[in-house]
Design brief:
The protein has 732 residues and is α/β, with parallel strands linked by helices. The protein folds into 4 domains: 88 residues, no CATH class; 95 residues, Nucleic acid-binding proteins (OB fold (Dihydrolipoamide Acetyltransferase, E2P), Beta Barrel), CATH 2.40.50.140; 266 residues, no CATH class; 158 residues, Rossmann fold (3-Layer(aba) Sandwich). 42% of the residues lie in helices and 17% in strands. The strands form 4 sheets. It has a 7-stranded parallel beta sheet with strand order 11-12-10-13-14-9-15, sandwiched between helices. Strand 18, helix 20 and strand 19 form a beta-alpha-beta unit. It is globular. The two termini are 32 Å apart. The N terminus and C terminus are likely disordered. The structure holds adenosine-5'-diphosphate and magnesium ion.
Length: 732
């Protein structure tokens, strides 16, 4: 298994390297002066390139650890080489020719002492290489062995001219993450020099070193670093390579410690900023009953679930504090996050502030507007709706209402709210489906919110982010850096579970018949068109064709079509017609993926379900099962399925629990892909892998808490050592 270091390319994988593969120990004396000038220029260039790798300080080089190791400690005689293995061997060149068929290439033939032969094949090469591998030269080569037409060969092996008595290395050779133009040899030397001149004193105070490092059987940092750069001859090779060696664990612990410290620091910084305190209720029972929050609760057609009550209380407590809340509300699809958001908004409005709610798509924003207006306008709240589709006059009115403060709640898409709106007294920002946004967008939003909350310059609105991609708590803590997390882990009562069926595309006609049957008995149906990642145009075309075919096959039904390219007005009209049960079958692209809530819809067909990811399928399926009728989700699949597609569909059939689906998704894809490297916490980790090293997070958190409380000086030193310039990610 490779070490968990995804950020940098492995230079030795780009076979046609930009520099000669041969590392010659000899230099032609005549060209010495020219070479020297060239060398200075090259070093300057290499330093630039090191900077690009983020290696500007000695300590950065010291902590630039190998991504893997090569075993160059032994030689395999050519006669014992096996195709498919990576090996090192040695021999003398007896033939060296440039062939032109099928394309220009250099063929070098080696013969070892036993008389066995091996071909070296170079598709890209320099003149200098041809010379360095001249007939009669003795070469030590390392590469992948394969069976060629003329016998065993290596394509682009690494090559080193040697003498008969050149010793073999005693230990594993480190291979560093690099970039084009920085050779391993150069990097190795730069790192060795940096290691030699950089003392690495133990920063952890004695009691902590005892409690966390020695108790876990881990070496001091300086020793760990030495071991990893230069494994000793008797090192446990397997443990070094799979990342389980105690030296690696020490590195990961220190890295996680830096991450946790930096989270704590961001948290403290947040506590130093001020936000409007929004008391949960004024004094006296009678006054409390008059609050908007109380009246909203009383007007709701349902009682909150226990889980909703809990998160409402968590959010309410945050809003009461004079520091900006930064809370992530996670809850499965359909768990009822919207009403929690509405109650938070009510608390802000009660306190005399404005709230803004934004959603990633216009369809969803529109739906929120409809729902929240329904709840809040009868209670006298002024809600403004901001959409790209508004007429200029309406838009101007909405913007004015936000700027003057007459609008108490403003709902719109992110684009609208972030770019165009000024607020009079913005106190709370609610971001729905936040998992759709990355660090950069969150930073932009924060900057905007900051400016919007005029008055004192360090005054910031509270932020509530909502997500239906639930993740385990430790992951949430590490990935979403500075967010507090609230979780709704219970669905509202009265939901009948969704039955999921896997049906082959060949039985499409039967599925169409079922759609007819369902619609004629008063149920509403979604038909989700296949995802075509390569081409949006093609996807659109498919959606239109599907719509036409279904409309023709089902003349007795009213069929609607909604997709991303539809003008917003039409989109809204179609959604409204579907919500009002005027349309019975809605053909849709994934624009309906998030948030759409039409409880009467109880059948969903997803075409080519095998092309969708698990999270997406779960989100889509979450559009049904929102009412009391038993819902069915039909996953149509076509063609032979890949192993992962099969695993995904099987998961969908077996469970509707979003946490369980997230867990399996994590298992199938790993956390990097699952959450996207965009999330701030992950960007800080180069060595620790949140899946395999999750057990280290807790000790790192504990140690961080103790450092902050007892040894503030050490905090700064540890952060400087580990993070350098990467800390800005945490501000998100
Ligand atoms: P999501 O968490 O996916 O955003 P929604 O907020 O859209 O879920 O809620 C899904 C549906 O459940 C909505 O129709 C909503 O009105 C309803 N709902 C929310 N809370 C409750 C509850 N406690 N009891 C019954 N229905 C509820
Ligand atoms: Mg929602």
């Amino acid at each position: 298994m490779p070490l968990p270091r995804p950020h940098l390319p492995d230079p030795s994988d780009d076979v046609p390297a930009a520099e000669p593969v041969v590392e010659s120990p000899r230099k032609a004396p005549k060209a010495a002066k020219v070479a020297k000038v060239a060398k200075v220029a090259k070093v300057a260039k290499s330093a630039d390139k090191l900077a690009k790798l983020g290696l500007t300080r000695d300590i950065d080089l010291v902590l630039h650890l190998p991504m893997r190791y090569e075993d160059e400690t032994s030689l395999t005689p050519i006669g014992e080489l096996l195709p498919g293995e990576t090996a090192q061997t040695e021999g003398v060149v007896f033939d060296n020719e440039i062939a032109y068929r099928p394309r220009r290439q250099l063929l070098v033939k080696l013969r070892d002492d036993a008389g066995e032969e091996l071909i070296l094949r170079f598709l890209n090469f320099y003149g200098s290489q041809v010379k360095q591998m001249a007939v009669g030269e003795r070469l030590r080569v390392r590469g992948d062995v394969r069976g060629g037409f003329f016998g065993l060969e290596m394509v682009h092996p690494s090559v080193r001219p040697v003498d008969t008595d050149t010793p073999l290395p005693q230990a594993l050779t480190p291979v560093y993450p690099s970039t084009a133009g920085v050779s391993q040899a150069y990097l190795r030397k730069a790192i060795d020099n940096a290691v030699a001149r950089t003392p690495l004193p133990e920063l952890l105070p004695e009691p902590l070193a005892q409690a966390y490092v020695r108790r876990l059987g881990l070496p001091p940092l300086a020793q760990a670093v030495r071991t990893l750069h230069h494994p000793s001859a008797d090192a446990d090779e397997a443990a070094l390579i799979d990342g389980t060696d105690p030296a690696w664990t020490r590195i990961k612990f220190d890295e996680l410690l830096a991450q946790q410290l930096s989270l704590k620091r961001a948290h403290e910084e947040r506590r130093r900023r001020t936000a409007p305190p929004m008391p949960a209720a004024s004094n006296g029972a009678q006054a409390a009953a008059q609050t908007l929050s109380a009246r909203l609760r009383a007007a709701l057609p349902f009682a909150l679930t226990g889980a909703q009550e809990r998160v409402v209380a968590e959010i309410s407590a945050d809003l009461t504090a004079p520091h900006p809340m930064q809370r992530l509300l996670q809850g499965d699809v359909g768990s009822g996050k919207t009403v929690v958001a509405a109650l938070a908004a009510a608390q802000a409005i009660d306190a005399g502030y404005q709230a803004a709610m934004m959603a990633p798509t216009e369809i969803l924003a529109e739906q929120h507007a409809r729902k929240l207006r329904g709840w809040l306008e009868p209670l006298g709240v002024a809600v403004a709706w901001l959409a790209g589709s508004l007429k200029t006059k309406e838009k101007r009115a909405a913007l004015e209402a936000a700027a003057s403060g007459t609008a108490q709640l403003v709902i719109g898409t992110h684009a609208m709210i972030q770019e165009t709106v000024e607020f009079a007294r913005l106190g709370l920002v609610i971001v729905d489906e936040q998992h759709r946004f990355g660090v950069a967008q969150r930073l932009a939003l924060r900057a905007k919110a900051h400016r919007a909350a005029d008055g004192a310059s360090d005054f910031q609105p509270h932020q509530l982010m909502m997500s239906a991609t639930p993740i385990p708590r430790t992951l949430a803590m590490t990935y979403y850096a500075d967010l507090d997390v609230s979780t709704i882990d219970e669905l509202p009562p009265g939901r009948t579970p969704i039955v999921t069926k896997l049906v082959s595309d060949t039985r499409r006609d039967e599925v169409v018949a079922r759609v007819r049957e369902a619609a004629l008995t008063g149920r509403q149906v979604y038909w989700v068109c296949p995802l075509i990642e390569e081409s949006e145009t093609l996807q659109l075309q498919t959606a239109v064709e599907t719509f036409e075919k279904l409309a023709a096959a089902l003349p007795e039904l009213r069929v609607g079509l909604v997709h991303g390219r539809l003008p917003p007005m039409e989109k809204a009209a179609v959604m409204e017609a579907f919500a009002g049960n005027e349309v019975q079958l809605l053909v849709a692209t994934t624009v309906i993926e998030v948030g759409v809530d039409v409880p009467n819809a109880s059948l969903m067909v997803i075409e080519h379900a095998e092309r969708f990811g698990l999270a997406q399928l779960h989100q889509l399926r979450g559009r049904v099962g929102r009412g009391s009728t038993a819902s069915v989700c039909v996953l149509l699949y076509g063609g032979p399925l890949s192993l992962t597609a099969r695993a995904r569909l099987k998961t969908m059939r077996e469970t509707t629990d979003g946490f369980e689906i997230a867990r399996r998704d994590l298992e199938i894809r790993g956390p990097g892909e699952f959450l996207g490297a965009r999330q701030s916490g992950a960007a800080m980790l180069r060595f620790a892998d949140l899946q395999n090293d999750a057990w280290l997070i807790e000790p790192a958190r504990e140690a961080a808490a103790r450092l902050v409380a007892e040894y503030p000086d050490v905090v700064a030193a540890h952060l400087a050592r580990w993070l350098g310039g990467r800390e800005q990610y945490l501000k998100a």
